[in-house]
Design goal:
The structure is a single chain. The chain is mostly helical and 203 residues long. 72% of the residues lie in helices and 0% in strands. It is built from nine helices and no strands. Helix 6 packs antiparallel against helix 7, helix 6 runs parallel beside helix 8 and helix 8 packs antiparallel against helix 9. The longest helix is centred in the middle third of the chain and has 32 residues. It is elongated and about 60 Å long. The model has no long low-confidence stretch (mean pLDDT 82).
Length: 203
Amino acid sequence: MPEINKSEKILDALQQLLEEKNIQHISVSDIAAKAGIGKGSIYYYYSSKDAIVDALIRRSYEKPLQTAKALATQTNISSFTRMAMLFQACQNSSAIFLRQKHKASTSAQDLAFLHQKYLNYVVSELKPALTEIISQGIACGEIHFDYPSALAEIVLIVLAVKFDNSLIPSTPEETIDTIKGLISLLEKGTGVSAGTLDYLSIL
Protein backbone atom coordinates (compact mmCIF):
# COMPACT_ATOMS: atom_id res chain seq x y z
CA MET A 1 0.00 0.00 0.00
CA PRO A 2 2.02 2.99 -1.24
CA GLU A 3 -0.16 5.55 0.56
CA ILE A 4 0.52 3.99 3.96
CA ASN A 5 4.22 3.63 3.23
CA LYS A 6 4.56 7.26 2.20
CA SER A 7 2.59 8.47 5.22
CA GLU A 8 4.87 6.44 7.51
CA LYS A 9 7.93 7.84 5.75
CA ILE A 10 6.74 11.35 6.55
CA LEU A 11 6.34 10.49 10.24
CA ASP A 12 9.72 8.72 10.31
CA ALA A 13 11.31 11.79 8.74
CA LEU A 14 9.90 14.13 11.38
CA GLN A 15 10.98 11.79 14.16
CA GLN A 16 14.53 11.78 12.81
CA LEU A 17 14.58 15.56 12.39
CA LEU A 18 13.43 16.06 15.99
CA GLU A 19 16.64 14.34 17.07
CA GLU A 20 18.70 16.73 14.96
CA LYS A 21 17.18 20.19 15.41
CA ASN A 22 14.59 22.23 17.27
CA ILE A 23 11.02 21.84 16.09
CA GLN A 24 10.60 25.53 15.25
CA HIS A 25 13.48 25.16 12.80
CA ILE A 26 11.93 22.19 11.01
CA SER A 27 9.92 23.07 7.91
CA VAL A 28 7.61 21.01 5.75
CA SER A 29 10.33 21.21 3.09
CA ASP A 30 12.83 19.70 5.55
CA ILE A 31 10.43 16.84 6.29
CA ALA A 32 9.85 16.22 2.59
CA ALA A 33 13.58 16.20 1.87
CA LYS A 34 14.29 13.82 4.76
CA ALA A 35 11.47 11.52 3.60
CA GLY A 36 12.69 11.63 0.01
CA ILE A 37 9.37 12.82 -1.40
CA GLY A 38 8.08 16.01 -2.98
CA LYS A 39 6.80 18.79 -0.74
CA GLY A 40 3.45 18.71 -2.51
CA SER A 41 2.99 15.08 -1.52
CA ILE A 42 3.15 16.05 2.15
CA TYR A 43 -0.06 18.04 1.84
CA TYR A 44 -1.87 15.08 0.35
CA TYR A 45 -1.52 13.35 3.72
CA TYR A 46 -1.19 16.19 6.22
CA SER A 47 -2.50 19.75 6.15
CA SER A 48 0.43 21.24 8.06
CA LYS A 49 3.55 20.55 10.11
CA ASP A 50 1.37 20.67 13.21
CA ALA A 51 -0.80 17.88 11.79
CA ILE A 52 2.32 15.77 11.19
CA VAL A 53 3.37 16.27 14.82
CA ASP A 54 -0.10 15.18 15.99
CA ALA A 55 0.08 12.06 13.82
CA LEU A 56 3.56 11.21 15.14
CA ILE A 57 2.31 11.45 18.73
CA ARG A 58 -0.69 9.24 17.90
CA ARG A 59 1.59 6.63 16.36
CA SER A 60 4.05 6.70 19.27
CA TYR A 61 1.48 5.96 21.96
CA GLU A 62 -1.09 3.97 20.02
CA LYS A 63 -0.47 0.51 21.50
CA PRO A 64 -0.85 1.25 25.23
CA LEU A 65 -3.87 3.43 24.55
CA GLN A 66 -5.55 0.76 22.41
CA THR A 67 -5.14 -1.64 25.32
CA ALA A 68 -6.76 0.90 27.64
CA LYS A 69 -9.71 1.55 25.35
CA ALA A 70 -10.37 -2.18 25.01
CA LEU A 71 -10.89 -2.41 28.77
CA ALA A 72 -14.19 -0.52 28.55
CA THR A 73 -15.77 -3.51 26.80
CA GLN A 74 -14.63 -6.12 29.35
CA THR A 75 -17.61 -5.95 31.68
CA ASN A 76 -16.77 -9.34 33.18
CA ILE A 77 -13.90 -7.61 35.01
CA SER A 78 -14.72 -5.31 37.94
CA SER A 79 -14.66 -1.56 37.33
CA PHE A 80 -11.90 -1.08 39.89
CA THR A 81 -9.64 -3.69 38.28
CA ARG A 82 -10.15 -2.11 34.87
CA MET A 83 -9.38 1.32 36.32
CA ALA A 84 -6.09 -0.03 37.67
CA MET A 85 -5.26 -1.49 34.26
CA LEU A 86 -6.10 1.79 32.57
CA PHE A 87 -3.89 3.67 35.03
CA GLN A 88 -1.10 1.25 34.10
CA ALA A 89 -1.63 2.02 30.41
CA CYS A 90 -1.41 5.72 31.19
CA GLN A 91 1.88 5.15 33.00
CA ASN A 92 3.19 3.03 30.11
CA SER A 93 2.40 5.73 27.55
CA SER A 94 4.11 8.31 29.76
CA ALA A 95 7.21 6.11 29.99
CA ILE A 96 7.33 5.93 26.18
CA PHE A 97 7.00 9.71 25.95
CA LEU A 98 9.80 10.26 28.47
CA ARG A 99 12.15 7.90 26.59
CA GLN A 100 11.38 9.59 23.26
CA LYS A 101 11.85 13.15 24.43
CA HIS A 102 15.15 12.41 26.19
CA LYS A 103 16.63 10.97 22.98
CA ALA A 104 16.72 14.36 21.35
CA SER A 105 18.68 17.41 22.41
CA THR A 106 15.51 19.44 22.37
CA SER A 107 15.03 22.93 23.74
CA ALA A 108 12.76 23.82 26.66
CA GLN A 109 10.36 25.40 24.15
CA ASP A 110 10.22 22.20 22.11
CA LEU A 111 9.64 20.08 25.21
CA ALA A 112 6.80 22.36 26.32
CA PHE A 113 5.21 22.14 22.86
CA LEU A 114 5.51 18.35 22.65
CA HIS A 115 4.40 18.00 26.26
CA GLN A 116 1.20 19.93 25.56
CA LYS A 117 0.49 17.80 22.50
CA TYR A 118 1.15 14.61 24.43
CA LEU A 119 -1.06 15.51 27.40
CA ASN A 120 -3.91 16.58 25.15
CA TYR A 121 -3.72 13.32 23.22
CA VAL A 122 -3.49 11.02 26.24
CA VAL A 123 -6.34 12.68 28.13
CA SER A 124 -8.65 12.97 25.12
CA GLU A 125 -8.01 9.37 24.04
CA LEU A 126 -8.36 7.75 27.46
CA LYS A 127 -11.24 9.86 28.76
CA PRO A 128 -14.05 8.03 26.88
CA ALA A 129 -12.77 4.64 28.06
CA LEU A 130 -12.43 5.70 31.69
CA THR A 131 -15.81 7.46 31.57
CA GLU A 132 -17.41 4.24 30.31
CA ILE A 133 -15.74 2.17 33.04
CA ILE A 134 -16.89 4.59 35.75
CA SER A 135 -20.41 4.67 34.28
CA GLN A 136 -20.55 0.88 34.32
CA GLY A 137 -19.40 0.91 37.94
CA ILE A 138 -22.19 3.36 38.77
CA ALA A 139 -24.77 1.21 36.97
CA CYS A 140 -23.84 -1.90 38.95
CA GLY A 141 -23.61 -0.07 42.28
CA GLU A 142 -19.82 -0.31 42.73
CA ILE A 143 -19.34 3.44 42.33
CA HIS A 144 -21.51 6.30 43.54
CA PHE A 145 -20.90 9.50 41.60
CA ASP A 146 -22.99 11.85 39.48
CA TYR A 147 -20.40 13.10 36.99
CA PRO A 148 -18.45 10.19 35.44
CA SER A 149 -17.03 12.20 32.55
CA ALA A 150 -15.75 14.98 34.81
CA LEU A 151 -14.24 12.45 37.21
CA ALA A 152 -12.48 10.66 34.35
CA GLU A 153 -10.97 13.92 33.09
CA ILE A 154 -9.77 15.01 36.54
CA VAL A 155 -8.13 11.64 37.23
CA LEU A 156 -6.40 11.50 33.83
CA ILE A 157 -5.06 15.04 34.05
CA VAL A 158 -3.52 14.32 37.46
CA LEU A 159 -2.04 11.00 36.33
CA ALA A 160 -0.68 12.30 33.03
CA VAL A 161 0.95 15.33 34.65
CA LYS A 162 2.48 13.34 37.51
CA PHE A 163 3.70 10.45 35.35
CA ASP A 164 5.18 12.80 32.77
CA ASN A 165 6.94 14.77 35.53
CA SER A 166 7.79 17.76 33.32
CA LEU A 167 5.16 20.35 34.13
CA ILE A 168 5.59 20.03 37.91
CA PRO A 169 8.84 18.09 38.51
CA SER A 170 8.51 15.85 41.56
CA THR A 171 10.58 13.29 43.41
CA PRO A 172 9.33 9.68 43.30
CA GLU A 173 8.16 10.09 46.89
CA GLU A 174 6.14 13.21 46.02
CA THR A 175 4.57 11.45 43.05
CA ILE A 176 3.58 8.50 45.25
CA ASP A 177 2.03 10.88 47.79
CA THR A 178 0.02 12.58 45.03
CA ILE A 179 -1.27 9.25 43.70
CA LYS A 180 -2.19 8.15 47.22
CA GLY A 181 -4.02 11.43 47.71
CA LEU A 182 -5.87 10.93 44.43
CA ILE A 183 -6.91 7.43 45.49
CA SER A 184 -8.16 8.74 48.84
CA LEU A 185 -10.21 11.40 47.07
CA LEU A 186 -11.60 8.78 44.68
CA GLU A 187 -12.66 6.59 47.58
CA LYS A 188 -14.36 9.43 49.43
CA GLY A 189 -15.91 10.91 46.30
CA THR A 190 -17.27 7.65 44.94
CA GLY A 191 -18.63 6.34 48.23
CA VAL A 192 -16.40 3.28 48.67
CA SER A 193 -14.71 2.22 51.90
CA ALA A 194 -11.23 3.53 52.72
CA GLY A 195 -8.60 1.12 51.39
CA THR A 196 -10.85 -0.28 48.64
CA LEU A 197 -8.82 1.35 45.89
CA ASP A 198 -5.35 0.94 47.41
CA TYR A 199 -4.39 -1.53 44.71
CA LEU A 200 -5.03 1.15 42.07
CA SER A 201 -1.65 2.57 43.06
CA ILE A 202 0.71 1.26 40.41
CA LEU A 203 3.94 2.86 41.59
